[in-house]
Amino acid sequence: MPDIALIRHSISQPVPGVSAHTWELTDLGVQRCAALADALRPYALSRLATSDEPKAVTTAETLQTHLNIAAPLIIEPAFRETRRESAAYFDNLGLFRSAIREAMKDAEHVIFGEEAFNAARVRFTTALDALIAAHPGESLGVVTHGTIMAMVLTHWTGVDAYSTWAALEMPAFAVVSGPGRHLVEFKPALDVP
């Protein structure tokens, strides 16, 4: 069975008062995509899909170039982060982490933003199943976001969602394989300066 790589976007530039869904990559974030591509190269990804958020699209486009992937990039809104347009910007990282932890602990209810975290996970995995069905036999990469990635990995592997999310840097990736989605590699941080 081909591999599926879940890829967290590269380093984004926070903009206070502006929805995180619209943030772009920093210059360093674009540069880190080269190291990310090198780390993903052994999986011979034949196609990339991405959420429609700018930071994810730029990550995917840059990866596509570095990996010489000829297939057209698939932009799929269902691969977005948990919906949080109304969520406040947190200057305090500790308060932000606490809000995410609470939303993960009660993932069936809307605690942070406009979407329960489990509903976001179902949205994502439904779109991923459709992508896999549309491209059978291909190793696929999906550029997405930290919270949704942690929720999906928790569902597939039983890892703790919050610990997984807290470990993820930008960029990061996890590769799963087989119908049971067993974890092949989890790279929460790249070995770059």
Question: What's the average pLDDT?
Answer: 93
CATH architecture: 3-Layer(aba) Sandwich
Adjacency order of strands in the biggest sheet: 3-2-4-1-5-6
Number of self-contained structural domains: 1
* Radius of gyration (Å): 15 Å
Low-confidence stretches: none
H and E string: EHEHEHHEHHEE
- Largest sheet geometry: 6 strands, mixed
Between the first and last Cα atoms, what is the distance in angstroms?
Answer: 34 Å
- Which descriptor suits the 3D outline? globular
Q: Class, according to the CATH hierarchy?
A: Alpha Beta
Helix/strand-derived category reads alpha/beta
CATH superfamily: Phosphoglycerate mutase-like
Q: What amount of the residues lies in strands?
A: 15-25%
Helical stretch count?
6
Oligomer: single chain
CATH topology: Rossmann fold
Helix content: 25-40%
DSSP, total strands: 6
